[in-house]
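User: Structure tokens for this complex, please. No commentary.
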Amino acid sequence: MKKIISAIATVALVVGTAVAVAPAANAACSGKLKIAYQGPLTGPEAALGINELNGVKFALSKFLTANKGANVDATVYEVDDQGDPAVAGPIAPKVAAEECVVALVGPAYSGASKVSLPVYLSAGLSIITPSATNPTLPTFGKSIFHRAVLTDDYQGPAAARLIVSKNKNAKVFLVNDASDYAVGLQKTVDITLAGRVVGKDVTPTGTTDFTATIAKIKKSKATAVFYSGYFSQAAVFVKQLRDSGSKITFASGDGTLDDQFVKLARKSAEGALLTAPAIPFETASPKLAKEMTAMGMKPGVYTTESYDAANFFLDAIKAGNTDRASINKYVSTKSHKGLSKTLKFDAEGEVSGADVNGFIVKNGKLVLLGAIK
Amino acid sequence: MDFALLRDAFWGLTFDGLALGAIYALISLGYTLVYGVLRLINFAHSEVFMIGTFSALVASGIMGVKVEDDPRTGWKMILTLLVCLIAAMLASAITAVLVEIIAYRRLRQRGATKLATLISAIGVSISLVEAFRIITHSLPREFPRIMDKTFLLSYAGADIRNDKVIVIVAAGLMMFALERFISKSRYGKGIRAVSMDENTATLMGVNINKVITVTFLAGGLMAGAAAFFYILVYENTSFKVGFFLGISAFTAAVLGGIGNLKGALFGGFVLGVLETYTSAVFGTAWKAVISFSILVLVLLIKPTGLFGESIQQARV
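Assistant:
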């Protein structure tokens, strides 16, 4: 008898848990509609997440000022995945189960996107990512996936062209941190650079000692190194590179493009070439940038793209769409004229008609070089 | 596999490996001392190291050094460096002693099982890591450059940098001092006695509590020194800096023979050099795989480590 009761109890527990965490597709929301943002809000990568979150918050506040009485929650539903797939995995079902979350700006990072997208797909939750650049993401997100930036299929070649434009005889050494984003980005850089690549190394996230990598770089007589990864480790690497006496060009992608990189690497960051399929908010609209700063939020990298993504969702809500399916249909079919570009997604959820921008670290600041031809 | 790189850059890699190994050796002393005396793997030791790095950072702030400042020179530089070193050593030592009093002593006095003490150790480690994660908002912190990094000389292709020379020499001096302390001083004798046989030592009049406290203190001081040297060379720290270094240092202690002082020293230097060589030959991504595979291999051949455990011999 005891065995039967415990067996029934176990089955009930399992079923109950499954029901509780099963994503609620199109369940009706009884309160205000919520826009969610997913990205690193704590952790070493938080600086980037906060820049994007500010873009979403700013868009939301401007929308509510212009549309008083709209049934939209004034607070952004924040999802902190620390830029880490291991953190994103468990929290995605919780977000999907939140009935009033009808749209999500994010996830910011490619690795976290890979694990979150299948969950959001089965929940029908529409997402527009402002910064995840791995080209394979549409296969995970399918109908709900939209991307407001160019992928690494464009960023990689642009970065390669930027390096070569500074030195026609560039010999490049490639380093990546083994994350999904970095591996994808390095692949496209590698293909474009072709015969100019003189060596490669992988330094997984958490590497503190780059002695061997730097020895390899020196032996290969490379004139430039392209680091694929994120700013916190890029800063550690470039510092050790410069401290070893190496003066070669340091280049990296959008994962490194952040004020924190310059702050952590200080003098070693000087002269670093960085790329991003992003446009600084101050360049896109100086007026709005001032307004945003006055509200206590400083714009950063990808703020413009997040702002545009949030506004596209708000357009959908303003047009009378209040559930996930209709909002997804709206952003998949209509277009939105944003600050960074006009968002019109193709069948894969990708956008076109934008540039990859080059940046250089000069006198301790990130300076826009302009679009990379 | 790039053996050519190892051959060409051999002296450079060896020098850098020794600097890294010096840091490992200092940390592994803490693990080996505590194991020798208590038969306990002090998981909280990695956080003792981490707290040392943050104390050095705070001390540099108190000395008025800002991150944007140029490096200092002369007496001012030496003074600042010494203050940071002493601050790191003191903070680590105090943390180590507090951990012993709070987490281990009561369990020991009530005759708790080794398992209970181990769980307590893991618990302390996790709570300290999480506390610092919250305090630092999970952000890494940079350490200002107090001493300019210059190359002293170039020997056979190796660039000998001043900060790494300081680390190797100073670490060597500290290890020598500790070895003298263990073999010559009264407390050193007490530590060796307790590591041989706790009950007999008590019967001989050794104050167990005091000896254990001194053991943790010594291990903490070494970890604090390691923390300062780490932050001098790498110039950054974060709440999780203790984790990987702790694992490597513990591995070094086991490699040399856990409970054996000389083993910890040797194991630390060997592991530092080994990790650097394997990174050069196989790629940095394979470093951990190869290093730990070698550890397993050594233990298969000699299970008590290269120098043997010291449970029955007075080799602490």
